């Protein structure tokens, strides 16, 4: 029995490598040229001194090569090189090529894109490379790239490996093998199918299998890609067939590989292990779920197209199928031979802008026929050009927008312009043919798509035809290519009917060329496997690839980094208010972003809805013992798990309303109702009780309706009762299923409600550590970011420099550091030498404020961003090393000789995973967990004089001294008033007044401030809608009036008024800013009274103020501020505890916003910037809302007329007893208690009702 052997299976560990070259005859060596007979390639054996001591070519240039024929297919595991003995000739870098035929060479690549090997630095030392992946080949070729600049190319070499034996079968596209396994069903938990293949055509069926239960599995090569298809079938079958290279009818499951029609061997493995299938092509693997594919019967073959090529070492569960075919134990259908028929196509690669091929035209016929095949990724490029005879013009055949286009230029005019084909940049081989006969010109692509035109002049090439490009000489004698050069491969070039011998071209016997790779196609599929992450779509050109990240939620060159924040907590600290936001819990990790409602209050709540959050009623149902309710959430299981584990606290309301319907059947009975959490485990405790207690909240609090039971509903009362509470044990959330049991008795009624899942806090966002010594550091396991690495964190420090983190390898490393107070450096090495990305800031970063750093490195580029400063992006070197290989621990801080970090680091994430700095800091000297002091960074989010209050994890805004409320003191309190007023007595030392209003009423009184001594200040609109400020600040002087220049302000629009008196100056701002000098020497006297909209004071009043007071005010007032007092805010938010008197109808409204808004305005979806992107109200709802608004308007208008009649008074007002004061522990007091404030409440203060 013959089979493949791996060298590591037959060579003992630690044994010397087996040399393969030293015993070969001289005839096994070939070269492009030789300097002399003593420099023959046969002397290029390692450590030999024969001849001139090695091989040297006649000319030292990049077109030289040394070739070795190993006489049979051999496994090569290592290569060693040496310079020419006793000389200054050696090679410093080279390429390694391999082939089974001596033609159609393929380049060995060490690391996907790395092809060049480093050579020698002298003539005698030996440099050995162990290949990462072994090569199976008969012919090996070395191409020198660089050599000693003071010498020439000189080479001796050895290759190591072992013999390789295999069983091969060749298929002609119509034949196949039929293999029948044991008819007994397979009891093995594992099935394994492995093989190698080499294809002569880009499409065909390799394997078709039928397994248990009628399932079919088919392996198909389609346009150079392998597809694994699976289709469910029908059972009741008794035997199993394996078809090699036939077709069946199927559904596509997964694809792998690309350009697999390159006439080289490729490896396939399909492994089933406990229901999972690992599908491997060469070095790339995908995993999927499939049932068994052994043990059942098959269907017949199909005529679509079988495999054309060779299969090698086909092993199914250790059975050698080809060996059994040789022994007639497997059915052979059609013409199958047991040797591999090799193709002899010789391709050529145009790899650079200087590449071209010039061929002579010596045909004397009156017709023209030129054809070739090409493959490329580029949409544009010159395929062919030639000058017409007798200087009649020039013909250009080129790619434009992935179509072939032919033009004939003559005397600056385009005489012919035709196109053919489309989508020709797909990397597949395409044929193009140009034929001219008797004035008829035909351009055909792939022998199907053709364009035809006629010419009135002969189209005959001159002396030469240029392919791929043409030389641009300085003297202008060469052609001038107005199009892009071609980058790709060509083969089967025919001039008339004669095939061009490219080997003779390579030997300089025919034509001329520049910068071509002969006898190989160097095309590389940079999108297989794709480096585009998170569903980004990969497109490519000859030299690079591009990722389209549209609609993925990720950004960057490889769609690696999330554009969304990881939690509502993070959005809150960007200043965002309540709304819908996309949240990406693990950043660049695999969990997808999810649209979540963020309720920004004192905490940032994440609200995850499900399909039934309403109260659901259940009635008696005979024959039904149980009602099951399933809850499907807006987030999937993986997202929910991440949200809950990352949150500080989660809860979910669970309510049960009952009438003769028992709940948990306490104290000792089996529960009638239970629920299922995240893990699938049933739970029998209710909201508000401890896990596992089989109780309700009332049982825990010992206040159930019936003390003998632990739930109100277990009392089985004939009246309605309920058990409600929240489930807050995170490991049990969310509630997936609710089973309600006791609903089948006569008279039983019940209702349940499962609220949305709500979570607040972000354990990752505030996870911090404080480094108090430069020598202190935290260590973590090695960072694995081989192809993509993103690192983000926040820091604050007073130090001028220091290393944030670093991870080292043997040669590779990655480091981020603060190099100066205004510069952050991201540096790394993946084998191409140290690489640095620097960001310089215009402001110092050692200011003890939080600063954000985000660094990313991928196969295309490296980037660094610091706060809002412009980021820096640097491209990675082309065709360089791409794998970052680290092996030491990751150090936060530094353990090397670099200067350590002093300060705080917070929310450190590597590839979306948060490092637990606090836990590690608890056991590390010189490092403390946590880091206080957030207001220096986030205090600016508190608006409108809100005060930032420090918390251990974050901050809060105290809006007590602001007329605004809300998370950031950003929400203005707005009120709609119909003839209402609010006021309070105060003692003043100065005035700072502001308010906003919206009304259509003129004249109207907006605000009135008066003292016991009849000194007052009034803000009013006159009959023309102009703003008047009327004030009398000294009892012995007449009232004065300031009138703004703004025209009618009673126009239903929102206006802002600000008045400030300092010393003898009063500033009034209404639409425009003005300053009025006042001859004042005294401030307002004590016992000042503040009144909004209607005056309520006793005694004599200014006649105009009294008249306007009798009219009342209908409209909107908002964000009213009198010194540090916010009377409107106090009246609306704390009507029962604040020292503010309200008389008349006063209702909270959104009328104070700059534009009218929907009552559902909070239910909007925000993009990253926080702007609404989705309206939550449908057109039908808007129509209904409009009708309701009209009805409400009519009702309010009637109430306004009634209020105006009832409250119109020309007399003075009556006083009332004061209300109580607001408690000190109120979270937002609208009155400032600071003793240094301008406003001081006197001990004898009195408050008055209207």
TrEMBL record:
Superkingdom of origin organism: Eukaryota
Membrane as UniProt keyword: yes
Species assigned in the record: Pygocentrus nattereri
Name assigned to this protein: Contactin associated protein like 3
InterPro entries from the UniProt entry: ConA-like_dom_sf, EGF, FA58C, Fibrinogen-like_C, Fibrinogen_a/b/g_C_dom, Galactose-bd-like_sf, Laminin_G, Neurexin-related_CASP
Family: Belongs to the neurexin family.
Membrane-spanning intervals of the chain: 1182-1207
SUPFAM superfamilies, per database record: Concanavalin A-like lectins/glucanases, EGF/Laminin, Fibrinogen C-terminal domain-like, Galactose-binding domain-like
Chain positions covered by the region annotation Disordered: 1213-1250
């Amino acid at each position: 029995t013959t089979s493949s052997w791996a060298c590591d299976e037959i060579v003992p560990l630690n044994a010397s490598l087996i040399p393969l070259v030293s015993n070969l005859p001289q005839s096994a060596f070939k070269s492009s040229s030789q300097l002399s007979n003593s420099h023959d390639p046969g002397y290029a054996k390692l450590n030999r001194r024969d001849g001139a001591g090695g091989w040297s070519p006649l000319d030292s240039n990049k077109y030289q090569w040394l070739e070795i024929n190993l006489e049979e297919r051999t496994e090569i595991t290592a290569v060693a090189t040496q310079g020419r003995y006793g000389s200054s000739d050696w090679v410093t870098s080279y390429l390694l090529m391999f082939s089974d035929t001596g033609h159609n060479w393929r380049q060995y690549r060490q690391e996907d894109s790395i092809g060049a090997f480093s050579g020698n630095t002298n003539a005698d030392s030996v440099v050995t490379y162990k290949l990462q992946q072994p090569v199976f080949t008969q012919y090996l070729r070395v191409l020198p790239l660089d050599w000693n600049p003071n010498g020439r190319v000189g080479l001796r070499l050895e290759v190591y490996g072992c013999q390789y034996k295999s069983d091969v079968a060749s298929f002609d596209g119509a034949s196949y093998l039929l293999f029948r396994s044991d008819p007994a069903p397979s009891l093995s938990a594992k099935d394994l199918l492995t093989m190698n293949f080499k294809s002569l055509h880009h499409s065909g069926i390799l394997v078709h299998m039928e397994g248990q239960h009628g399932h079919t599995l088919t392996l198909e090569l389609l346009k150079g890609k392998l597809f694994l298809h699976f289709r469910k079938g029908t059972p009741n079958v008794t035997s199993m067939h394996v078809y090699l290279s036939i077709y069946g009818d199927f559904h596509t499951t997964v694809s792998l590989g690309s350009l697999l029609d390159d006439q080289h061997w490729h490896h396939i493995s399909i492994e089933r292990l406990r229901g999972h299938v690992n599908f491997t092509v060469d070095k790339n693997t995908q995993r999927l779920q499939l049932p068994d594919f052994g043990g059942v019967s098959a269907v017949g073959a199909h005529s679509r197209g079988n495999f054309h090529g060779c299969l090698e070492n086909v092993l199914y569960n250790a059975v050698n199928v080809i060996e059994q075919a040789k022994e007639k134990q497997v059915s052979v259908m059609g013409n199958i031979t047991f040797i591999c028929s090799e193709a002899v196509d010789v391709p050529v690669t145009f790899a650079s802008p200087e590449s071209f091929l010039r061929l002579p035209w010596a045909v004397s016929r009156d017709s023209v026929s030129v054809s070739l095949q090409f493959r490329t990724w580029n949409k544009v490029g010159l395929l062919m050009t030639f000058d017409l005879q007798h200087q009649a013009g020039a013909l250009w055949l080129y790619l434009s927008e992935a179509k072939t286009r032919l033009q004939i230029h003559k005397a600056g005019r385009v005489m012919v312009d035709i196109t053919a084909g489309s989508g020709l940049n797909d990397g597949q081989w395409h044929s193009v043919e140009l034929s001219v006969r008797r004035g008829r010109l035909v351009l055909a692509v792939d022998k199907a798509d053709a364009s035809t035109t006629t010419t009135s002049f002969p189209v005959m090439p001159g002396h030469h035809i240029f392919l791929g490009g043409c030389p641009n000489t300085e003297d202008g004698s060469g052609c001038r290519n107005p199009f892009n050069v071609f980058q790709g491969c060509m083969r089967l070039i025919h001039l008339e009917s004669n095939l061009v011998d490219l080997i003779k071209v390579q030997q300089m016997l025919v034509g001329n060329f520049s910068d071509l790779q002969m006898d190989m196609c160097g095309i590389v599929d940079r999108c297989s496997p794709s480096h585009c992450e998170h569903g980004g779509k990969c497109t490519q050109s000859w030299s690079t690839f591009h990722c389209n990240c549209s609609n993925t939620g990720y950004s960057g060159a490889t769609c690696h980094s999330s554009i969304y924040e990881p939690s509502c907590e993070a959005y809150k600290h960007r200043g965002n208010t309540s709304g819908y936001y996309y949240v990406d819990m693990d950043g660049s990790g695999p969990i997808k972003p999810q649209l979540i409602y963020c309720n920004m209050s004192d905490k940032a709540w994440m609200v995850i809805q499900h399909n039934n959050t309403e109260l659901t009623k259940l009635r008696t149902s005979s024959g039904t013992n149980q009602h099951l309710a399933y809850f499907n959430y807006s987030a999937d299981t993986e997202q929910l798990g991440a949200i809950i584990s990352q949150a500080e606290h989660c809860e979910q309301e669970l309510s049960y309303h009952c009438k003769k319907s028992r709940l948990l059947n306490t104290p000792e009975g089996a529960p009638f109702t239970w629920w299922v959490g995240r893990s699938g485990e049933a739970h029998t405790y209710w909201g508000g009780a401890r896990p596992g207690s089989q109780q309700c909240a009332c049982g825990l609090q010992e206040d159930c309706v019936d003390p003998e039971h632990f739930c109100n509903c277990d009392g089985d009362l004939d009246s309605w009762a309920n058990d409600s509470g929240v489930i807050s044990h995170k490991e049990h959330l969310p509630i997936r299923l609710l089973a309600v049991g006791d609903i089948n008795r006569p008279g039983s009624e019940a209702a349940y409600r499962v609220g949305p899942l709500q979570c607040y806090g972000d354990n990752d966002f505030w996870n911090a550590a404080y480094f108090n010594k430069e020598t202190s550091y935290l260590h973590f396991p090695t960072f694995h970011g081989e192809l993509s690495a993103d690192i983000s964190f926040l820091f604050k420090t007073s130090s001028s420099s220091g290393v944030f983190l670093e991870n080292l390898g043997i040669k590779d490393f990655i480091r981020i550091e603060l190099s100066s107070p205004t510069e952050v450096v991201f540096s790394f090495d993946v084998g191409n030498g140290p690489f640095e990305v620097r960001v310089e800031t215009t402001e110092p970063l050692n200011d003890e404020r939080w600063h954000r750093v985000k660094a990313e490195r991928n196969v295309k580029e490296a980037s660094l961003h610091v706060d809002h400063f412009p980021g820096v992006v640097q491209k990675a070197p082309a065709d360089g090393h791409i794998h970052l290989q680290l092996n030491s621990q990751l150090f936060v801080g530094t353990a090397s000789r670099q200067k350590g970090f002093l300060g705080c680091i917070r929310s450190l994430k590597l590839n979306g995973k948060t490092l637990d700095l606090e836990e590690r800091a608890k056991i590390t000297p010189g490092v403390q967990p946590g880091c206080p002091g957030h207001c220096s960074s986030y205090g600016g989010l508190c608006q409108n004089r809100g005060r930032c209050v420090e918390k251990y994890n974050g901050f809060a805004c105290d809006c007590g001294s602001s007329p605004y409320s809300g998370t950031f003191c950003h929400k203005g309190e707005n009120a709609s008033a119909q003839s209402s007023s609010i006021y309070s007595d105060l003692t003043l030392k100065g005035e700072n007044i502001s308010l906003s209003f919206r009304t259509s009423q003129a004249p109207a009184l907006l605000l009135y401030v008066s003292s016991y001594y009849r000194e007052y200040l009034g803000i009013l609109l006159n009959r023309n809608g102009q703003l008047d400020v009327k004030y009398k600040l000294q009892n012995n002087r007449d009232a004065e009036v300031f009138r703004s220049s703004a025209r009618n302000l009673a126009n239903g629009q929102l206006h802002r008024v600000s008045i400030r008196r300092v010393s003898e100056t009063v500033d009034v701002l209404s639409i425009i800013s003005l300053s009025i000098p006042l001859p004042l020497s005294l401030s307002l006297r004590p016992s000042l009274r503040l009144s909004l909209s209607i005056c309520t004071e006793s005694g004599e009043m200014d006649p105009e103020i009294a008249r306007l007071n009798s009219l009342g005010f209908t409209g909107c007032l908002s964000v009213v501020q009198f010194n540090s007092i916010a009377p409107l805010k106090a009246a609306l938010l704390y009507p029962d505890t604040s020292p503010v008197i309200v008389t008349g109808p006063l209702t909270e409204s959104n009328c104070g916003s700059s534009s009218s808004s929907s009552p559902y305005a909070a239910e909007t979806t925000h993009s990253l910037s926080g702007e609404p992107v989705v309206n939550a109200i449908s057109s039908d709802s808007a129509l209904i809302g409009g009708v309701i608004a009209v009805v409400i308007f009519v009702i309010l208008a009637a109430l306004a007329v009634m209020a105006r009649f009832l409250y119109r008074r020309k007399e003075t007002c009556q006083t009332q007893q004061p209300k109580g004061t607001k408690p000190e522990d109120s979270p937002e007091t609208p009155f400032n208690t600071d003793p240094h404030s301008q406003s001081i409440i006197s001990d004898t203060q009195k408050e008055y009702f209207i």
